[in-house]
Design a protein that fits this description.
mainly beta; six-stranded antiparallel beta barrel; six-stranded mixed beta sheet; 2 helices; 46% strand
Protein backbone atom coordinates (compact mmCIF):
# COMPACT_ATOMS: atom_id res chain seq x y z
CA UNK A 1 0.00 0.00 0.00
CA UNK A 2 1.30 3.46 -0.92
CA UNK A 3 0.99 6.50 1.36
CA UNK A 4 -0.70 8.37 -1.51
CA UNK A 5 -3.56 5.84 -1.33
CA UNK A 6 -3.98 6.31 2.43
CA UNK A 7 -4.86 8.95 4.96
CA UNK A 8 -2.91 9.73 8.11
CA UNK A 9 -4.82 8.48 11.16
CA UNK A 10 -2.39 9.35 13.93
CA UNK A 11 0.93 8.65 15.60
CA UNK A 12 2.05 6.09 18.16
CA UNK A 13 3.14 8.29 21.04
CA UNK A 14 3.93 5.82 23.84
CA UNK A 15 3.99 2.23 25.00
CA UNK A 16 1.24 1.48 27.47
CA UNK A 17 2.01 -1.80 29.17
CA UNK A 18 4.60 -4.51 29.46
CA UNK A 19 2.31 -6.66 27.22
CA UNK A 20 3.06 -4.63 24.10
CA UNK A 21 0.18 -2.16 24.01
CA UNK A 22 0.69 1.30 22.50
CA UNK A 23 -1.08 4.64 22.71
CA UNK A 24 -1.97 6.48 19.51
CA UNK A 25 -2.72 10.20 19.30
CA UNK A 26 -5.43 10.40 16.66
CA UNK A 27 -5.65 13.16 14.07
CA UNK A 28 -9.45 13.25 13.96
CA UNK A 29 -12.45 15.06 15.40
CA UNK A 30 -14.30 11.76 15.88
CA UNK A 31 -11.97 9.27 17.63
CA UNK A 32 -14.84 6.90 18.48
CA UNK A 33 -15.30 5.73 14.89
CA UNK A 34 -11.83 4.14 14.93
CA UNK A 35 -12.36 2.15 18.11
CA UNK A 36 -13.10 -1.22 16.46
CA UNK A 37 -10.53 -1.45 13.68
CA UNK A 38 -9.20 -4.83 12.53
CA UNK A 39 -5.95 -3.55 11.01
CA UNK A 40 -3.92 -0.46 10.14
CA UNK A 41 -0.82 0.37 8.13
CA UNK A 42 2.17 1.40 10.24
CA UNK A 43 4.85 3.60 8.71
CA UNK A 44 8.20 1.79 8.94
CA UNK A 45 10.92 3.75 7.12
CA UNK A 46 9.54 4.52 3.65
CA UNK A 47 7.07 1.63 3.71
CA UNK A 48 3.62 1.01 5.08
CA UNK A 49 3.39 -2.34 6.87
CA UNK A 50 0.02 -3.93 7.72
CA UNK A 51 -0.50 -4.64 11.43
CA UNK A 52 -3.48 -6.64 12.65
CA UNK A 53 -5.21 -5.50 15.81
CA UNK A 54 -6.05 -7.82 18.69
CA UNK A 55 -7.95 -5.14 20.62
CA UNK A 56 -8.44 -1.44 20.36
CA UNK A 57 -10.28 1.07 22.57
CA UNK A 58 -10.39 4.75 23.44
CA UNK A 59 -8.10 5.84 26.24
CA UNK A 60 -8.71 9.21 27.95
CA UNK A 61 -10.92 10.49 25.09
CA UNK A 62 -8.34 11.50 22.46
CA UNK A 63 -5.95 8.55 22.58
CA UNK A 64 -6.46 5.08 21.18
CA UNK A 65 -5.03 2.13 23.10
CA UNK A 66 -4.03 -0.64 20.68
CA UNK A 67 -2.76 -4.19 21.17
CA UNK A 68 -1.33 -5.48 17.89
CA UNK A 69 -1.39 -9.25 17.28
CA UNK A 70 2.36 -9.62 16.71
CA UNK A 71 3.57 -7.14 19.36
CA UNK A 72 3.81 -9.00 22.67
CA UNK A 73 6.25 -7.16 24.89
CA UNK A 74 7.54 -3.77 25.92
CA UNK A 75 10.65 -3.62 23.65
CA UNK A 76 8.54 -4.42 20.56
CA UNK A 77 6.06 -1.67 21.54
CA UNK A 78 8.86 0.85 22.20
CA UNK A 79 10.21 0.08 18.71
CA UNK A 80 6.91 1.36 17.23
CA UNK A 81 6.79 4.66 19.15
CA UNK A 82 6.93 7.59 16.74
CA UNK A 83 5.44 5.63 13.82
CA UNK A 84 2.48 6.99 11.89
CA UNK A 85 -0.73 5.00 11.38
CA UNK A 86 -2.54 5.04 8.05
CA UNK A 87 -5.78 3.69 6.61
CA UNK A 88 -6.89 3.38 2.96
CA UNK A 89 -8.64 6.49 1.60
CA UNK A 90 -11.84 4.54 0.96
CA UNK A 91 -12.27 4.14 4.74
CA UNK A 92 -12.57 7.89 5.30
CA UNK A 93 -16.07 8.77 6.47
CA UNK A 94 -17.90 10.74 3.77
CA UNK A 95 -18.35 14.41 4.61
CA UNK A 96 -21.36 16.48 3.64
CA UNK A 97 -22.24 20.13 3.26
CA UNK A 98 -19.34 22.55 3.47
CA UNK A 99 -17.02 20.10 5.24
CA UNK A 100 -14.28 18.51 3.15
CA UNK A 101 -10.95 16.74 3.29
CA UNK A 102 -8.04 18.72 1.92
CA UNK A 103 -7.03 16.00 -0.54
CA UNK A 104 -10.63 15.85 -1.83
CA UNK A 105 -10.74 19.43 -3.16
CA UNK A 106 -7.51 19.42 -5.17
CA UNK A 107 -8.59 20.29 -8.73
CA UNK A 108 -11.80 22.07 -7.63
CA UNK A 109 -12.46 25.55 -9.04
CA UNK A 110 -12.73 28.52 -6.68
CA UNK A 111 -15.64 30.83 -7.51
CA UNK A 112 -15.61 34.17 -5.70
CA UNK A 113 -18.96 35.93 -5.27
CA UNK A 114 -17.48 39.24 -6.55
CA UNK A 115 -14.74 38.16 -9.00
CA UNK A 116 -16.12 34.89 -10.40
CA UNK A 117 -13.54 32.22 -11.29
CA UNK A 118 -10.38 32.91 -9.27
CA UNK A 119 -8.52 29.71 -10.08
CA UNK A 120 -8.12 25.99 -9.57
CA UNK A 121 -7.02 24.55 -6.23
CA UNK A 122 -3.56 23.03 -6.68
CA UNK A 123 -2.93 22.30 -3.01
CA UNK A 124 -3.65 23.15 0.59
CA UNK A 125 -1.05 24.65 2.92
CA UNK A 126 -1.92 23.58 6.46
CA UNK A 127 1.56 24.08 7.90
CA UNK A 128 0.75 27.66 8.89
CA UNK A 129 -1.59 29.01 11.60
CA UNK A 130 -4.40 29.57 9.05
CA UNK A 131 -4.87 26.81 6.46
CA UNK A 132 -4.83 28.18 2.91
CA UNK A 133 -6.07 27.07 -0.49
CA UNK A 134 -3.25 27.36 -3.02
CA UNK A 135 -5.07 28.23 -6.25
CA UNK A 136 -3.64 28.98 -9.68
CA UNK A 137 -5.11 31.48 -12.15
CA UNK A 138 -3.35 32.65 -15.33
CA UNK A 139 0.02 31.40 -14.06
CA UNK A 140 -0.32 33.25 -10.74
CA UNK A 141 -0.72 31.61 -7.33
CA UNK A 142 -3.44 32.84 -4.98
CA UNK A 143 -3.52 31.99 -1.28
CA UNK A 144 -7.10 31.96 0.04
CA UNK A 145 -7.82 31.38 3.74
CA UNK A 146 -9.89 28.30 4.60
CA UNK A 147 -12.53 29.22 7.14
CA UNK A 148 -16.30 29.06 7.57
CA UNK A 149 -16.80 32.79 6.93
CA UNK A 150 -15.13 32.65 3.51
CA UNK A 151 -16.47 29.30 2.25
CA UNK A 152 -20.06 29.77 1.13
CA UNK A 153 -20.72 26.42 -0.58
CA UNK A 154 -18.88 23.24 -1.52
CA UNK A 155 -20.36 21.86 -4.75
CA UNK A 156 -18.90 18.35 -5.10
CA UNK A 157 -20.95 17.52 -8.19
CA UNK A 158 -19.47 20.45 -10.17
CA UNK A 159 -16.11 20.37 -8.36
CA UNK A 160 -16.46 23.99 -7.27
CA UNK A 161 -16.04 25.85 -4.00
CA UNK A 162 -17.91 29.15 -3.74
CA UNK A 163 -16.13 31.73 -1.61
CA UNK A 164 -16.48 35.32 -0.43
CA UNK A 165 -12.90 36.56 -0.23
CA UNK A 166 -11.94 39.52 1.95
CA UNK A 167 -11.94 42.92 0.23
CA UNK A 168 -8.75 43.47 -1.78
CA UNK A 169 -7.36 39.93 -1.47
CA UNK A 170 -7.99 38.79 -5.06
CA UNK A 171 -6.80 42.13 -6.49
CA UNK A 172 -3.57 41.69 -4.54
CA UNK A 173 -2.77 38.57 -6.58
CA UNK A 174 -4.37 39.21 -9.97
CA UNK A 175 -3.65 42.89 -10.62
Amino acid sequence: MRKEDCFYLGKIVAKHSYKGEVLVKLDTDEPGIYENMESVFVSRGNSLVPFFIERCRLHKSNLLRIKFEEVNDEPEAVNLVGSGLYLPLELLPELEGNKFYYHEVIGFSLMDQKHGDIGVIKGVNDSVAQALFEAEKDGKTLLIPINDEIILKVDRQNKTIHVATPEGLVELYLS
